[in-house]
From TrEMBL:
Residue stretches making up the Acyl-CoA dehydrogenase/oxidase C-terminal domain: 230-380
Superkingdom, natural source: Archaea
Cofactor(s) required, per the database record: FAD
One Gene Ontology MF term: acyl-CoA dehydrogenase activity
InterPro entries noted in UniProt: Acyl-CoA_DH_CS (IPR006089), Acyl-CoA_Oxase/DH_mid-dom (IPR006091), Acyl-CoA_Oxase/DH_mid-dom_sf (IPR046373), AcylCo_DH-like_C (IPR036250), AcylCo_DH/oxidase_C (IPR009075), AcylCoA_DH/ox_N (IPR013786), AcylCoA_DH/ox_N_sf (IPR037069), AcylCoA_DH/oxidase_NM_dom_sf (IPR009100)
Oxidoreductase as UniProt keyword: yes
Segments forming domain Acyl-CoA oxidase/dehydrogenase middle: 123-218
Acyl-CoA dehydrogenase/oxidase N-terminal domain ranges (all copies): 6-117
Protein name according to UniProt: Acyl-CoA dehydrogenase
Keywords attached to this entry: FAD, Flavoprotein, Oxidoreductase
PROSITE patterns: ACYL_COA_DH_1, ACYL_COA_DH_2
Family: Belongs to the acyl-CoA dehydrogenase family.
Pfam families: Acyl-CoA_dh_1 (PF00441), Acyl-CoA_dh_M (PF02770), Acyl-CoA_dh_N (PF02771)
Length: 384
């Protein structure tokens, strides 16, 4: 058993850390306050090869493994989760194209995304279909050689900035099987009949663009179907282990960012004539924050390893990692604010933002409750 990163992985970590310190941290508060998508930072991230780096080399990516993706994600989120999500979501939905797309779809979309010339979005959730993905009601009907799409999607990351969406639609409602009858369809962002409304006032990750999409007779050519008709939900399920591991890495990043900032502050701040880090109550907080972050990281690495090696216990591990790392992010960020006292309550200090940002990791890509359901199902072998 090897508990060391390779030299290449260490180098990746150092390079992304440097990028995050120089290009993300100095502007993070500004984008958070303005709720603005960081186009300039995205251009620099493209130059660094940070956009959709899991895409294979032949389509312009780097072909990073899940483990390398976890290392990179931790660094981005330790600096700032809002901008970190913009960078790591640029290729949302790319997995569907990589795994099930036609050669034409891959060659058209993926190189644009990795070059920073296009952004993708993955449109699954709807106003009435959140945790229960099988209640998706957006309809795609065949009319000649086109699909005609009607319905709405909710909470879509990159909703107003994306050039391409992978949209989960119901195409075959007559199929009498809960998981069949859905298809994934590629929809260009500039199609007639597609309306996108930005959602503002989010608790956290405010640099990230989130929107509601409305489809009113949106027409796309039949060639935009991704993979097999009626199998969209089953196709989608194959990526959850990977995407949940990535959210676990986000949680590790937020926890580490908060724990490091708390340590720094505790050593600087003096009360009662001594550094607050001299008080045992604060020492214990710091010890617990760093211990839990380390535990979350290794569970996440273990899950990433399982993704890369297609291990049998992968689904349980991915949900364990996602649940534990997101809970750790929320708890550590909470303690980091506590260590800062009043200073942690205002946005002069990053912990205020990390505290707000941490919460999303317990909600998207399947809530905490859904992750526990999955772990229990894997243990007990029964349904949801
Ligand atoms: C900022 C943001 C970005 C997002 N980005 C995207 C995106 O890019 N693409 C996309 O498709 N979606 C996206 N989402 C949607 C996200 O995945 C959903 O919000 C999430 O899956 C939960 O669905 P819901 O909000 O409808 O909550 P609900 O499903 O209504 O859940 C409400 C509560 O009930 C609980 N609950 C529901 N079912 C069960 C059950 N069976 N057992 C126990 N408890 C249960 C939940 O855990 C939760 O606590 C995003 C959401 C946010 C907030």
């Amino acid at each position: 058993m090897e508990f060391q990163l390779t030299d290449e992985q260490k180098q990746l970590r150092e390079e992304v850390r440097k990028f995050a310190d120089e290009e993300i941290r100095p502007v993070a508060t500004e984008y958070d306050v303005e709720e603005e998508y960081p186009h300039e930072v995205m251009n620099k991230a493209a130059e660094m090869g940070l956009l959709a780096p899991h895409v294979p080399v032949e389509y312009g990516g780097i072909g990073y493994s899940s483990l390398e993706n976890a290392i990179l994600t931790e660094e981005l989120f330790a600096a700032d989760p809002g901008i970190g999500l913009c960078i790591s979501s640029a290729g949302f939905g790319a997995e569907a194209l990589m795994e099930f797309g036609t050669e034409e779809q891959k060659e058209r979309v993926l190189p644009e995304v990795t070059a920073g010339d296009a952004v993708m979005g993955s449109a699954i959730s709807e106003p009435q279909a959140g945790s229960d993905v099988t209640s998706v009601a957006t309809r795609a009907e065949k009319d000649g050689d086109e699909w005609v799409i009607n319905g709405s999607k909710m909470w879509i990351t990159n909703g107003t900035v994306a050039d391409y969406f992978v949209v989960v639609c119901e195409t075959d409602p007559d199929i009498d099987d809960r998981y069949s009858g859905y298809s994934q369809i590629l929809v260009e962002g500039d199609r007639d009949g597609l309306t996108r409304d930005k959602i503002t006032g989010k608790l956290g990750i405010r640099a990230s663009d989130t929107a509601e999409l409305r489809f009113d007779d949106v027409r796309v050519p039949e060639e935009n179907l991704i993979g097999q008709r009626g199998m969209g939900f089953l196709q989608l399920m194959q990526f959850f282990d990977e995407t949940r591991t990535a959210v676990a890495a986000q949680g590790v990043g937020i926890a580490r960012g908060a724990a490091e900032r708390a340590l720094e502050y505790a050593e600087e701040r003096e009360q009662f004539g001594r550094s607050i880090s001299d008080f045992q109550a604060i020492k214990h907080k710091l010890a617990e924050m760093h211990t839990n972050t380390e535990a979350a990281r290794w569970l996440t690495y273990r899950s990433a390893w399982a993704v890369d090696n297609e291990a049998g216990d992968l689904t349980a591990l991915a949900s364990m990692a996602k649940e534990f790392a997101s809970r750790t992010a929320v708890e550590v960020a909470n303690e980091a604010v506590q260590v800062h006292g009043g200073a942690g309550f205002v946005n002069d200090h990053d912990v205020e933002r990390l505290y707000r940002d941490a919460k999303i990791t317990q909600i998207y890509e399947g809530t905490t409750e859904i992750q526990k359901n999955i772990v229990a199902r894997e243990l007990l072998g029964d349904g949801m």
